[in-house]
Amino acid sequence: MNRYRTAFVIGGSSGVGQAVVTAMIRSGVERIAIAGRGHDALRDAATQASVSGATVVPYVLDAMDHAVLTEALTDFDASSGGIDAVVCSTVPSGVSPQPLESTDPGRVEDILTSIALPPLHATRAAIPLMLRSGGGSIVLVASDAAKSATPGESVIGAAMASIVMFARTAAWENKRHGIRINTVTPSLIGDTPTGARMLEGGFSARLFAKAAERADLGVPSAAEVAELIDFLASPRARRITGQTVSINGGISVV
Fold first, then answer.
1. In whole angstroms, what is the distance from residue 95 CA to residue 249 CA?
2. How far is CA 247 from CA 14, 144, 219, 220, 241, in A?
3. What share of the chain is helix, strand, coil (3-state, %, to 5)?
4. 117: phi then psi, degrees, rounded to nearest 5
5. For residue range 178-226, what is the model confidence (pLDDT) as tens digits?
6. What is the pLDDT of residues 56-98, one digit of tens each?
7. In 3D, which of 5, 6, 9 has the Cα closest to residue 42?
8. Residue 199 domain-assigned?
9. Does residue 193 lie within any of the structural domains?
10. 210 in a domain, yes or no?
């Protein structure tokens, strides 16, 4: 499908998601939904993005709630004449690397589901809409822990790997319908709230400080990650599906 007029960005009020909105508008997307949990952050992001002339529609929601997410996507689809691209760039709160023996067993399920379920829900909700409109593109944001988890990322890596395998299989199932599904796996991102939090102190700060030293090509910015996501979401990547693309400045080469 060669349309790239409408997009729905989950996690679009900050960090990589907000940068994706900017990149998409620059690429000519005319109508964009941004979804997230924070009302004020969504309002501010929508106001900022609307300055460009695009129509920006905010949805306050929790992407862990499949029914609510489906309702929002369906509403935007109906009001926009279809959804050409969906991006899921959610960041679970309170999740950071730590050794397995230090991980509270009672939190394991929460970590797994808070990372894995939003992209699964987003994809499941988007596919029926894209089937009706003749195709579309879905880009899920995971992390390099999906492919090369470091010490402290055993649970996080398991959750991220589930996103990659899910996307790969869903892409295989839906390619005949003109629906493309790809995953982007950054590592440390230099200018996001999550990146700053990871470097504040403790185990994660030591882990990511070492990672940054290995980024001989430089730690990517949110805008650089967003450019890749925008490319994969757009018709420029119309021959690409089921792929997992890392952008990490050389931290790993897996």
1. 23
2. 19, 8, 9, 7, 17
3. 50, 15, 30
4. -70, -40
5. 999 999 999 888 777 766 666 666 777 777 777 777 888 888 899 999 9
6. 999 999 999 999 999 999 999 999 999 999 999 998 877 888 8
7. 9
8. no
9. no
10. no
81 contact partners, CB below 8 Å, separation of at least 6: 6
Structure tokens that stand for 113 in this block: 């589901």
**What CATH number corresponds to the domain at position 59?**
3.40.50.720
Task: Answer yes or no: pTM beyond 0.85.
Answer: yes
What is the spatial distance between Cα 11 and Cα 158, in angstroms, rounded to a whole number? 21
Q: Tell me how far apart the alpha carbons of residues 7 and 10 are, in angstroms, rounded to a whole number.
A: 10
What is the extent of the structural domain holding 37? 6-188+221-247
Number of folded domains that form the chain = 1
Q: CB-hemisphere CA count at 13 Å for 97?
A: 28
Q: Where are the alpha helices (DSSP H) in 175-246?
A: 193-198, 202-214, 222-233
177 occurs within a structural domain = yes
Nearest to 43, CA basis, from 12, 74, 20? 12
Pair of tokens at residue 234 = 């757009």
From residue 127, how far is each of 52, 109, 136, 180, 225 by CA, in Å?
29, 26, 8, 10, 24
